[in-house]
Amino acid sequence: LLDLEGARVTLEALPGSGPFATRRDAQLAYRAALMGDRAPADRVLGAWRASPADEVPQEAMLDLAAAFEALGRNDAADELLEDVLATPRGGQASLLVARRALVLRARIRLEAGELVEAAAILDLVRPYSRAPSLLRPFVLELDAGRALAVGELEGLEARLDVAAREAEPVDRRCHARVSALAWRLASERATPPPSIASIDLAPEAIELAWLTGESAESATARHRVHERIAAGRAALAAGHPGRALEHADNAAREAALAEQRLLQARAMALGCDAAVCGGLWSELPDRAAALADLAGWMGSERWRACAELVLSADDPSTLERLAAEERVAPRVARRARALLGGAPAMDEVDDAVVGALRAHSGLRVETVLARGAGWEAGWGLDDRVQRVWTSAGAGVDLSSRALLWRVLVTLLEGGGTASKEELVLAAWDEREYHPGRHDAKLHVSIRKLRQTIEDDSSRPERLLTTDTGYRLGGVVRRATRAG
Fold first, then answer.
1. Per-residue pLDDT tens over the stretch 277-329
2. In this predicted structure, what is the pLDDT of residue 36?
3. Domain boundaries, the chain
4. Closest among 139, 63, 150 to 102, alpha carbons compared
5. What's CA 164's distance to the chain center, in Å?
6. For residue 265, which of 156, 150, 347, 356 has the smallest C-alpha distance?
7. What does the pLDDT read at residue 200?
């Protein structure tokens, strides 16, 4: 698939009848499908069905299945694959015809969001796709796509580099898909992220770039969804949330009809961003809940985190947990860090979404105690509800335990440390400090606090003892209501 026009000329020069005619027709249909032409695939399938007594080679069925997959008609492709895999040869992963069928089925399952099943199919093929197998680039690409969708990003850049090198001399379409995956990963992780004001920089454009202009006029549903997502991202970056929402909703509907659930999740996430920027707060919970349901069905922690962020922008405990998910959902993590008072590098859409969420929630977070210039997970006090949150996202309500809350506030307002005398005078509102009278009470309160806010009260990390009193440990934040 490095020269589609050359392939067409070569195939058409072959005899239209004889032992190779069936596969020649299927290969021509596949080439036409890659150029956006639907008719040849339907014509070939119709001819086969009109002559059921004629035996169709498995390789030809595979070629036609690939044509239907390229057209976004995965149901027709899957039926043909079922016919291949049901045969003795098709049922043995050690045979090339079976491996080709399994790789194509893995792609269909991946696009449908069936991530667990896609992974299981790839596991069957993996032992037979080591270098120099021609199927290896496809397995690497599909495995990387699954990892990105799930949120398993550790080491993914290196895997994509290998996939790109191996795909380039083999298949232009596969190489374009790898490039698009690499762009998405880079845009999520880059510091600062690349600008997305131009549609030409969108990963959707990379995926379509290998096609000629001819195909754009007869794009498949998958291509239209790609283009609408790209247009929506560009509109949102340009400050037009209403236009972005229209593109996102149209893309999500078309992806759902085509059972392209990975694309549907991306479109729905874009819709959530557009709703936030457009101030559509009443419909945002339903949008985010729908994305969370789809993420749960697929088993995608990445999209689950995306849905959770827009629903929890006023909850510092959830934001603290999401801010730590850089290896799962980097875009979500940097937005959460910004909402917690950090200053991560962000693109135009990040800025717009975070600004809208911050203005709506009224949450203001300040890091009172820090250990360095970079971002670190922390814990904090939420003055609005007298609640302590931890770096793991847990929360402890101290609204009915006023004395314990005052002890923590006294430490926080004292720069993170206070003597026993300072704690007694402030938290107990005493005029004088007497160790014999007050130390036992203070020790009891400190023990209760440690039992409440520490992961292990016998090894405190957040409330530490000093020579003269106590201090707060770790990175500590304070949440208040803006204004």
1. 999 999 999 999 999 999 999 999 999 999 999 999 999 999 999 999 999 99
2. 76
3. 4-304, 364-483
4. 139
5. 21
6. 150
7. 42
> What percentage of the chain exceeds 90 in pLDDT?
63
Helices 261-277 and 241-257: crossing angle, nearest 10°?
160
- C-alpha 412/C-alpha 428 separation (Å) is 16
Contact 170, 138 (CB under 8 A): no
CB-CB neighbours of 413 under 10 Å = 12
Q: Please, are residues 307 and 266 in contact by the beta-carbon 8 Å criterion?
A: no
Domain spanning 364-483: which CATH class is it, in words? mainly alpha
Q: What is the pTM of this model?
A: 0.86
Average pLDDT, the chain: 88
Taking residues 427-444, what's their average pLDDT?
A: 90
The alpha carbon of residue 92 and the mean position of all alpha carbons in its chain are separated, in whole angstroms, by 34
Cα distances (angstroms) measured from residue 47 to each of 15, 52, 53, 265: 17, 9, 11, 37
Other C-beta atoms within 10 Å of 467: how many?
5
Burial (CB count <10 Å: 0-12, 13-18, 19+), residue 148:
buried
User: Any residues with CB less than 8 A from the CB of 343 and at least 6 apart, and which?
Assistant: none
Retrieve residue 373's tokens.
């210039």
pLDDT of residue 216: 42
The string over 349-366, giving b where at least 16 C-beta atoms fall within 10 Å of a residue's C-beta and e elsewhere, is bbebbbebbbeeeebbbe
Maximum separation of any 2 CA atoms in the chain, in Å: 106
Closest CA to 36 of 84, 4, 63, 76: 4
Q: Cα–Cα distance between 320 and 301 in angstroms, integer?
A: 16
Per-residue pLDDT at 222 = 79
User: What was the pLDDT predicted at 186?
Assistant: 85
CATH number for the segment(s) 4-304: 1.25.40.10
Residue pLDDT, tens place only, 34-51:
877 889 999 999 998 888
DSSP state of 377: -
| Beta strand ranges found along 212-327 (DSSP E) | none
